[in-house]
Amino acid sequence: MIVVPSEMGRMNKLALLTRVQRMGVASRADLAKSLGLSQPTCGKIVDDLLHQGVLEEAELSNGRDGEPRQGGRPKLGRPGRTVRLNRSEPRFIGIQLGVTHTSLTPLALGVSGEDAWQATFPTPNSAAGWVRELTRAAKQFNFKPLAGVLVSVPGILDEPGGRVLFSPNLHWTERVDLSEQVAKVWKAPVVLVQEERALALGHQYVTPEREDFLLVDFGDGVGGAVLVAGRLQANPLPISGELGHTPVHGNTRPCGCGAVGCLETLVSTRGLIESYAEARGMPHPTWAEVRTGIGRSGVEPWLAHSLEAAAVILAGALNVIGLRHVVLTGALTELPLVALQYLTHAIQRGALWARFGEVEVETAPRRRTAGLVAVGIERLVLSAPADPC
Fold first, then answer.
1. Are 211 and 227 in contact (CB under 8 A)?
2. Do the Cβ atoms of 174 and 167 come closer than 8 Å?
3. pTM for the model
4. Helix, strand or coil for residue 270?
5. Under 8 Å CB-to-CB from 291, ≥6 apart: which residues?
6. CA-to-CA distance for 350 and 348, rounded, in angstroms?
7. Residue 139: helix, strand or coil by DSSP?
8. Residue 65 carries which DSSP code?
9. Which helix (H) or strand (E) is 190 found in, with range?
10. What's the N-to-C CA distance of the chain in angstroms?
11. Distance (Å, rounded) from C-alpha 13 to C-alpha 21?
C-alpha cells in the first residue's frame, strides 16, 4: 500500500527506496539531489513512506550506519533529519529451505549484515512433514502487518511461476506447489527465490559498491549467480549458475541430479568430507576434523585435485561471462587460509583477464536474508495496491 496511482510515482518511489538502501541513511535534501527530484516531490514521497512504516527517521549527522560522511569528519552544525529503511518492525517472514535443515526468522525492511535465523528444524522428506514443522515454528512469529513470506529455495526454480522444476537434493519439492504449501501456514503473499540468487542479491544489498560479480556458494551443493550493473543476469530459461553440475574428468561419484562426476560431489561439504575420509582411511570424519586436518597438513593431493577442478570451472565462467570478480560463500570459506589461497591462485591462472588485469577473489558471509528482503521490497512492497492520493 505504498504506490501512488501513476507509473511515474511508482518509479520515483522505487528509485528513492533503492537509493536509501544503498546509502543506509540519507536526508531529504540528499535524496532529492541524488535522484534529480524537486525537494517538495522528494519530501512528499518520504513523508508517505514514513507514514506507511516503510521508512523511519534516524537522527544521525553521519553517513551509512553512523560513519562520517566527508573526509572522515562528521558534518558540523545541527544534525540533519535523516531517514532509513524501517529496522524496528518486522514485515516479512524469511525462510531458508535447506537440504538438511530449514531456518526461519522475521525480517525488517532495513535488514543488514550476516544471516541470523531464530528457528531451525531438520528438513523432512515430504511436503506434509515440512508444512507440519513450519506450522509449529510459525507460533514464534506472530506479528502484523505481514507483507509476505520470502523463501530461499535450492534447485532449478521457475521464480515467476513459483514452482520448483528440479531439485537434485530435495526431489519432493518438485511434486508440490511450494507457494501453496507455505500459504497453508501464513495467509500472506509468498515469494520463492532461488537460493544462490538470494545470496548474490544479499551481498550486493550489503555492499552496494559491488555491482559486477560471480557469487559461488559451497554447501550441500555448489551453485552460483551473476550480477551485472547491480542486477541479476536474466536468462531465457529458469536455469543459471549450476556450476556444481559440471562434470569433472575422472570423477566417478554419483550425483543427486542423476549424473556421474559432478563438481559438487567433490567440493560440497559432503564431497570434501568423503574425499578426506578416503585419503585418511577414516570412516566418518566430521566437518571440524576435516578443517583441522587441512590446517595441519596443508593442501594434500586429494584437496588439490578438488580445488583445481573447481578453479577450472570458475575461471571458465569468468571467461565466458566477462567478469573479473568472484565472491565465495559457504563451506569453502571455512577452510584454512592455505586452501583458499590455493583456490584463488588456481582461478587466477585460468582467467584470461588475469593476463593483463586483476582478477579478484574474495570470501564473504552468507547474506541470504538481505537478498530475500531486496526481493520482497521490489515484488511485494512496491507492487502493493495503491491507496487513493
1. yes
2. yes
3. 0.87
4. helix
5. 334, 335, 336
6. 5
7. coil
8. G
9. strand 190-194
10. 11
11. 12
What count of residues does the chain have? 389
Cis peptide before 145 (omega within 30 of 0): yes
DSSP string for residues in 71-125 = TTBPPPSSPP-EEEE--SSEEEEEEEE-SSEEEEEEEETT--SS---SEEEEPPS
Q: Which three cell numbers stand for residue 298?
A: 596443508
Stretches in the chain below the pLDDT threshold 70: 1-7, 59-80, 383-389
* DSSP 8-state secondary structure symbol assigned to residue 385: P
Q: How far lies 128's CA from each of 120, 134, 151, 185, in Å? A: 17, 10, 17, 12
The CA-CA-CA angle for residues 287, 289, 290, to 5°, reads: 65
Q: Is the separation of the CB atoms in 309 and 318 below 8 Å?
A: no
**Which H, E and C letters describe 327-365, residue by residue?**
EEEEHHHHCCHHHHHHHHHHHHHHCHHHHCCCCEEEECC
Residue 140 main-chain phi, psi, to 5 deg: -80, -20
As a three-state string, the secondary structure of 198-259 is HHHHHHHHHCCCCCCEEEEEECCCEEEEEEECCEECCCCCCCCCCHHHCECCCCCCECCCCC
CA distance 274 to 282: 9
DSSP secondary-structure letter at 148? E
Q: What pLDDT digit, counting tens, does each position of 107-129 carry?
A: 999 887 789 999 999 999 999 99
Pairwise CA distance, residues 114 & 101, whole Å: 18
Cα-based distances in Å from 243 to 48, 75, 195, 246: 44, 47, 14, 6
Q: What is the pLDDT of residue 305?
A: 97
Inter-helix orientation angle 287-297/269-280, to 10°: 60
